Amino acid sequence: MGLPRRRFLQLAGGAATLPILPRIARAQTSWPTRPVRYIVSFAAGGPNDTTARLIAQYLSDNLGQQVFVENHTGAGGNVGMEVALNAAPDGYTIAFVGPNNAISATLYKKLPFDFMRDSVPIAGTMRMTNVLVANLNLPVKSLTEFIAYAKANPGKINFGSGGVGTSPHLSGELLKAMAGINMLHVPYRGTAPALVDLLAGQTQCMFDNLPGQLQQIRTGKVRALGVTAPKRAPELPDVPAIAEIVPGYEANVWYGISARKGVPNAIVDKLNHAVNAVLADPRLKARFEQLGGHPMPMTPAQFGELVASETAKWAKVIKEAGIQAA
Q1: How many CB atoms lie within 10 A of CB 49?
Q2: Residue 303: is its pLDDT beyond 90?
Q3: What is residue 29's predicted lDDT score, i.e. its pLDDT?
Q4: What would the mean pLDDT of 284-301 be, rounded to a whole number?
Q5: N or C terminus of the chain with fewer C-beta within 10 Å?
Q6: Are 271 and 174 in contact (CB under 8 A)?
Q7: What is the Cα Rg of the chain in Å?
């Protein structure tokens, strides 16, 4: 006896979908079958770009497909992140993530995306520290003396940074709040002009990523007063962590990888395993050390928790200091 037409169509429709799930699974587990673009929201040649290109090189070897960096600059990194979050959630577009993404969530009142809502965390990559350096003519030789001098001279210390809302800027704002000192922030379009004015005495101190100041510190052109990480940096073992003088102070610089939400879990896991594998490579570790950084392997969940906690932390600092995007 023949099947009723409706029942037949139901069975036929079900049968037609049977091969689809295995095909999807095969596509996910065989990923990548073509090049992967790595969106970096800052200019070529800078520290973020340099780090991303290094990771891309090792990932290309591990994955068997080229991972190429694509730079999209502007709006404190938000232009590039918008590009990444508008891409198809297929794992072929990934994004370089750093403190600016956690900061921008509060600093910018209107963004075309919600980073926490619209992205999926994939992996941590590198951690480094910022450093507080002072002009040699400032009459202090330690962080304790610096804080005492700042309290005795409220508003007379100008501290520079590479721009409003950058990690170095907020490192300074956090120190102001926690140490109870009053300093004037002087933002620049990048760290290079900020350093020129520091050396000339136009500003008395500045916060910067450690790699950007190592040469000046080692040649005695500036005085390092403290690093923002919770522990001393191996590159500067004689320079205290600010937390040694201001308990609880911590301002880390961290990098990682995210993508548009919706990327299949199988691809997220495969990419996470690939990233962690290259982070364990002694050659990459050595290159990171040359950049003043250290590998930061994490699960997707751990990296997501880091981004969430950093977003909440800097939201509080931004609101209390009344900082607004330039």
Answers
A1: 18
A2: yes
A3: 61
A4: 95
A5: N
A6: no
A7: 23
- Beta carbons within 10 angstroms of residue 1's beta carbon: 3
Output helix, strand, coil percentages for the chain, rounded to the nearest 5: 50, 20, 35
Q: Could you tell me the domains of the chain?
A: 35-127+253-321 (3.40.190.150), 129-244 (3.40.190.10)
Question: Residue 213 contacts by C-beta under 8 Å, 6 or more apart in sequence?
Answer: 131, 133, 195, 222, 224
Q: DSSP labels for 50-97?
A: HHHHHHHHHHHHHHTS-EEEEE---GGGHHHHHHHHTS-SSSSEEEEE
91's torsion region: left (phi>0), alpha (psi -120 to 50) or beta?
Answer: left
Percent of the chain past pLDDT 90, that is, above it, reads 84
3-class SS at 133?
strand
Task: Average the pLDDT over 136-151 and give the result.
Answer: 98
Which tokens in the block code for residue 104?
A: 């921008």
Rounded to whole angstroms, the Cα distance separating 285 from 236 reads 18
CA triplet 127, 160, 110: central angle to 5 degrees? 70
Alpha-carbon dihedral of residues 53, 120, 249, 143, nearest 10 degrees?
A: 20
State residue 23's pLDDT score: 45
Triad 75, 302, 123: Cα angle to 5°: 60
Task: Say how far apart CA 161 and CA 197 lie, in whole Å.
Answer: 11
Q: Which helix (H) or strand (E) holds 234?
A: none
pLDDT value at residue 16: 43
55 or 189, which is more confident? Answer: 55
E strand intervals along the chain: 36-40, 67-71, 93-97, 119-134, 157-161, 183-187, 205-209, 223-227, 252-260, 294-295
**189: nearest Cα among 225, 154, 162:** 162
